[in-house]
Prior knowledge:
The protein is mainly alpha-helical. The chain has helices at 31-48, 51-57, 89-108, 112-125, 146-172, 184-199, 204-223, 234-249, 252-259, 265-278, and strands at 62-65, 73-77, 83-88, 301-304, 311-314. It has one domain (31-330). The two termini are 25 Å apart.
Amino acid sequence: QGEARDPEPPARGSLGAAPAGSWDANGHMTRAFLEQETREIHRALLAALDPAQRAQVENIPFEIVDERSEPNAAAACLRSQHARMMITSAMIELAAGISEAKAYDELADTQTYETYVTSVVDQVRREQPVTGVDPSLHTAPHATDAHKLARQRHLFDQQIAFILGHELGHHHLGHTNCVGGRTQAQIERDEMAAVLSHTVPPFEQPREIEADMWGLTNVLEAGHERPGGTWNHEGALLNMDFFRRLSDHGGAELVLAFLSTHPPSIIRIPIIRSTAQQWTPGWRPPRMPTPGDAPGGDGDAVEIPTPGGPIRLPGNLPIDPRQLPIDPRALPIPLPQPR
C-alpha cells in the first residue's frame, strides 16, 4: 500500500467548535473541562470496543489522579485482584499544553511547540509540576481564534484517546491478568506472559507494542465518524514525540526505567503508522505470541507480528539503535506541519 502518510491539519471550519466556557482569556482549556473531556473520551472508547472486550473492561473504575509532577497513565491489578485504570493530572496537563502549542503554531506559523515540550522535559527531569503553555508565548488574536480552539480540543482528544486506548488494551488483552470473560486457555496464556514479563524485562515490550496496536485501533474505531472531527494517529505521534525527547534528555534513570518496559519510539512509531495505514472499520491487529512461543525462544530476541510484517526486538537493554530493523533516520519524528 506504500508508505503511510501522517495526517494533515484539518481545514479551517471543518472542526466542531470548542464548547463555550471551555477556555480562559489566554486560550488555555480549563482544568474542569479537560477532566470532563477525558472522561467522555473514555466512554467513547468503551463504546467502540468489540462486545466481548467491552464486557471485560466497562466496569473497571477509571480515576484521574491528582499527581502534578508525573505524566503517566496505567492499567493495574490490585492485590485484591480488582482492576483499575488511571491517568494523572500531569498527563492531562501535558496533553493540553501540547495541543495548545501545536494548534497555535499551525495558525500563527510559529514554533511554540518546541519551546513548550522542551520546558516540560526539564520539569519532569527536575520532578517539578507540569505546567501549561507560558501565556506570553501566545498572543491575540490567535490565542483565542475559533479554529485554534477547535483544533486544540481536537488534538487533546486524540492524544488522550490513544493514551487511554493503550491502557484499556492492557486490560482486555489480558496483560494485567485481572479481568473476567476469558477462556481458560486465554487465562493460562496471559499468566505465562505475565510471569515472563516480570522476570525478563524485554518480554514486557511486546505487550506494550500490542497495546499500541489495539489501542490505536480502538481510537480509529471510536473516531472515524466522530462529530466535530475525525480521530487518526496524530495524537499517538505527539505522545511518542514527547517520550522520545524525554528519553533523549531525561537522564539515565528516567531512560532506563522507561525502556525497561517500553520499546523506544524508533520502534513504536513505524508500528503506529503501519497500524493506521492498515486500518479500516472492523479490522483488528494481530495478537502477540506468548513469549515462550516466539521464534528462537532463547531470550535473545522477541519476534513481534505487526500490520507491516514481523520485526525482531533485541533482548538486550538499553537498545542500541544500530540493532533495530528500522532505519534510525526516521527520527526526528515528522509531525503535521502548518499549511
